[in-house]
Design goal:
With 183 residues, the chain is mainly α. Helix content is 71%, strand content 3%. It contains eight helices and two strands. The model has no long low-confidence stretch (mean pLDDT 95).
């Protein structure tokens, strides 16, 4: 019963984040356009819209973007083409994975399956999280990376000498810092 509820929560959350992702919301907002255009530019030439080769900080419409979301979008544009779905995919994927991540963190910290399941289910249906998962928002990816950084760190502390978990934690935290400026 428990696994079935967790499975349903995750897949319902996944469905809500990906259903008509390329068309709902309609059109791209300016930041999504900037992310997608820079990803396209990197994909085609290895340079951003200002001709800088493989930058770590993207000047875009006189706004500045960090690299993780742009380079993630390079991969999704390569896979899915130059479209809204490809630009929004990294945020939706990380938003979906956060459901499992929050379940794991809550279970590890509390040892209560039903509390962890309730937390994951609330996140799966949370309107705020759905909103930020369905558009190309860097903040959603950064939040997800921070969550996984915490998960790997807690696992590393509980399992002494698990240096791989510490390394994964550090990588997650560093990627989060290079995803969204406020992080």
């Amino acid at each position: 019963e428990f696994r079935r509820v967790l499975f349903r929560s995750f897949f319902t959350g996944f469905f809500l984040r990906f259903y008509h992702l390329g068309s709902v919301p309609n059109g791209l907002y300016p930041d999504e356009t900037a992310l997608g255009y820079n990803a396209y530019s990197i994909l085609m030439s290895g340079k951003d819209e200002y001709g800088v080769s493989m930058p770590l900080y993207f000047r875009s419409f006189d706004d500045y973007k960090l690299p993780v979301y742009v380079y993630s979008t390079v991969l999704t544009e390569k896979l899915f083409g130059i479209n809204a779905f490809a630009v929004r995919f990294p945020s939706s994927l990380m938003g979906s994975l956060s459901i499992i991540g929050i379940f794991a963190v809550m279970f590890i910290l509390t040892k209560k399956k039903w509390l962890a399941l309730l937390t994951a289910t609330v996140l799966a249906f949370n309107p705020w999280h759905l909103f930020f998962s369905r558009a190309g928002y860097e903040v959603n990816v950064a939040t997800s990376l921070m969550l996984f950084g915490v998960l790997f760190f807690v696992l590393a502390v509980q399992n002494k000498r698990k240096y791989l978990l510490f390394i994964l934690s550090i990588i997650s935290f560093v990627l989060a810092v290079y995803t969204y400026n406020v992080t």
